[in-house]
Amino acid sequence: MITPGPAGASLMDPGKPLILVTGATGYIGGRLVPRLLAAGHRVRCLARNPERLAGRPWPGVEKVQGDVSDPEALAAALRGVAQAYYLVHAMGEDRPDFRGRDLRQATTFAEACARAGVRRIIYLGGLGDPTRHRSDHLASRQEVGAALGSSGVPVLEFRAAVIVGSGSASFEMLRHLTERLPFMITPRWVKTRCQPIGVRDVLAYLTEALEHPDLSGIYEVGGGDVLDYRDMMLAYAQARGLRRVILPMRVPFPILSAIWVELVTPLPMALAKPLVEGMTTEVVVRDPRALEAFRVRPMVYREALELALRRLDEDAVETTWASSLAGEPEGRALGAYEGMLLERHALHVRARPGTIFQAFCALGGESGWPAGNWLWQLRGTLDRALGGKGMRRGRRHPRELRVGDPVDFWRVEALEPDRLLRLRSEMKLDGHAWLQFTVRPEGTGSRLEQTAFFEPHGLLGLLYWYAVLPFHWFVFPGLIRALKRRAEASVTESRRGR
């Protein structure tokens, strides 16, 4: 089903051809859509869960629920589409069949595009000499490009290496390693040559592509200089005013490096492993035709780095690597209370609903949880030990939330300004869990309700709930009292500032 976007001001030109963006909930897709809108293009997005796009300020964008492996959903999504962006991949999904699944999805998408009469597919793949790949994920990215062209629809394929931008997986890996380790004994892959490119330049290439509708083929894109990963980390340290020592050494198995990255950085093993494997392969531009065909003049690494750091310092990160990772099966929503185990707390708060809403929307991330934070951290550590996400993902923004945002091991499922926030757990559980906050006017203040919902799966789910109840009795009453204190303190500070 195609859902029209929200009403509001839009620069879209109704006379322009319709563009489909897949992967709009992801890191690149989530940044591309507003740039296409600013350029006046008509945009439709395909997403497994369109609700994750509900908080995006994208007036006029159509949303279609579906998956690139579903021919019926693709037929609806591609109806009337002139060009389609293919921005989905399996990196971050730790499954042994990812390479075959990527190929099947790309082939299905290509066949659907051919049937729908799509004039061109635009795809973002990976750099690297295909004869020297040591990484299944890099090889898969280029195989997908070939599969997209298997049905005869022209394909414009951009190939890029490390994308430097606030929130990108590769940038966050290098950032956390450099920030947290003053002395590093590293694998020799840190001496592998790479041509990093700023995310703004990648988006500029993808956007300008629509101005060249007859252009197809492979275009390699890279930044203004070629570095190795050690140079990149040292440049980061210099930009942050840090002193770092990096000593490369021989590490026989890349998986050991991936385990270390998983322990030190926020990235899960499912992302760390392909990133580390990719770093053993040289990824530099060998064919500079992109500089001749497009107006983009890529910035050097230091400039891209400074822009990324500025975004972080200003809390202006648009999307992050965690935005695109699936957690619980899509479409799972909070059901009826029957069969649910509940724990509810309510308090009267001497503050307006908007002030309280801001307080519970600032939970998690680097600020932590105001009651029993060490227990939250312990639960996150246990989740990581069980193969879950733990607390590593943090937040996109320290105060603002939108549907689909990760918040530690939660995901924002529902958000109604000044009224409701519902978080869905993405921990490893024998059941499904939610944490919901609601606020409404009450007398001279507001009534704040906090409810934990748990839908157990079988006996193990019930045993889990009753095993953690003693911790709940400490954490949840403390949490709602802390929110009350924060909201009322905010009111007091506001009055003093008048």
From TrEMBL:
Span-the-membrane segments of this chain are 462-480
Which Pfam families is this protein grouped with?
DUF2867 (PF11066), NAD_binding_10 (PF13460)
Q: Which UniProt keywords apply?
A: Membrane, Transmembrane, Transmembrane helix
Q: Note the Gene3D superfamilies from the entry.
A: NAD(P)-binding Rossmann-like Domain (3.40.50.720)
What sequence ranges are listed for the domain NAD(P)-binding?
A: 23-130
Q: Fetch the SUPFAM superfamilies from UniProt.
A: Bet v1-like (SSF55961), NAD(P)-binding Rossmann-fold domains (SSF51735)
Task: Please report the name of this protein according to its UniProt entry.
Answer: NAD(P)-dependent oxidoreductase
Q: What organism is recorded for this protein?
A: Geothrix limicola
